[in-house]
Design brief:
The structure holds 2 protein chains of 2 kinds. By secondary structure, chain A is α/β, with parallel strands linked by helices. Chain A is 34% helix and 29% strand. The longest helix of chain A has 16 residues. Chain A is globular. Chain B is mainly α. Chain B has one domain. Chain B has 12 helices and no strands. The longest helix of chain B is centred in the middle third of the chain and has 31 residues. The chains are: A alpha/beta, B mainly alpha.
Chain lengths: 310, 270
Amino acid sequence: MKDSVIQVRDFSKIYGDVVAVDAISFEVQRGEIFGLLGPNGAGKTSTLESLEGLRTPDGGSLQVMGINPARQSRKLRDVIGVQLQSSGLPDSIRVDEAMKFFSAYHGVAPRYDLLDRLGLAEKRRAQYYQLSAGQQRRLALALAVAHDPPVLLLDEPTAGLDVPSRVELHNLMRELQAAGTTIILATHDMAEAEEMSDRVAILLRGKIAATGTPLELTATGAGLTKVSVHTKSSSLSVPGVTFPAVSQQGLKDEYVIYFSSDIGPTVSAIIAHIEAQEDTLIDLRVERPSLEDRFLEITRTEGTNTGGTQ
Amino acid sequence: MSAFVNHFSFEFRTGIRNKTLLLLNYLLPLGFYAMMGLIMTEINPGFVETMIPAMVVFAILSGMLLGLPDPLVAAREAGIFRSYKINGVPPFSILVIPALTTILHTAVAAAIITATAPLFFDAPLPVSWPGFVATFLATAFSYAGLGVLIGVISPSSRMTVLWSQLIYLPSMMLGGMMIPHDILPEAMGKVAQLLPATQAMNAFRGLAYDLAADFDPWGSLIVLLASGMLAFGLAIYLFNWDRRNTTQRGHPLLALLALLPYAVGMLLLS
């Protein structure tokens, strides 16, 4: 039986004349990582901030572990950990002070081990303004999980992080998930969403344009397969060269990229063309479309349908 | 309790760690005190009679009006209060703890002034220490309330300076610190009673120095305390977690109610 931890029902948020979120609904199950994707202004942050109790919904209802975030902020703070998009800490606070400060308000012992784990051991005595952007985000994450909350809300957690920090953060997220923590991950990073999320919702202009597992979303696209080809003499780059079942093509770095609705005839024709031109095949990759491809497809379709530009 | 103590400890250290606050809590009042001691005592020998309370009131003005409001505005603008809300830091702590730590910094500056002025400038010590301490605390409380209230209602750092200066400059000129209240024209003297500094200097004269007060010094003490309580109450009522909140509990002009005790004092105290 499913155990729904977060329930969003017909939730709307309006700022003046602007409908930031328009009657969206979704649920997040216990232990799930739920990706919230969308371009800037899609409504991700409004949704997250309403779940965090920072905004009051203008319509519909929200529940986090049975708690109404707008009305039960005291109960809410014990069950959620939040990594905000903006800094959220005074410039002059030291790293160890910040851990002590917030742990005291949550009534738990400071988790200095998390600072070590997230690569901040040498920065314990540094003031917040002395940290790099990546270090600030790692500190924010350490503070968000220090009271061991069952629900974690992360807003662009890896923005500005270098590769090792990003890997460490992903490992920590997986550990937390394995321990039963439910995570909402708002991100622009499609690769991260695809890698980390059990399910995602794509928000566009305040509405959910698509939802499902990353695999479901990519499978429900136009059904095109991506074929990337790199040859020695670039014989494929010549204008006017076409292949069967290819609906779109483009160039990326040294690869010619085709989107095919029938992979067999397309690949056969490409290889035949390379041989006929006495060119040499260096690399040929056949991939299902990524979440990013699907995301771009959805934003293009929605933009066309509504006449919008996003 | 542990959270409150931690928060207090952090804010107190910020008052020294932050260069602007260090300047406003210590360097400006002590520098001004040294300058006034060297210059004013030569120009106006009568100044020395109330030099200690005047410089203590200046230290309070500097810390509470110039130092206290802007960090509150800056923290709200930077989203720090949002983070505090999520982690359970109550508005009471956000507003009262910086006020308490600033009072403590001001008390240190005041102690330095009080201890050194007799040695360096022959300034007389208070004749009543309880009266001196009570007036100091009431004045600091009153100005802290106003400082916090300005921090809450001010929409930006630029406006904070404007609101603070609206009280700071008249306090400096008409508050009885540089020019004795009794030599002001009568109408001007009445208007000056709207300033916390005037009430503070009057209470210091009557309750700490056994000098002739211009009006009832106990009344001044009550006015300072009443204004402080009103200002803190209004600050907590008008508090906003962030500037993007569209719901406000009251219009910022409600803050003017904090000056009501001074208006009543102006009418009743003579």
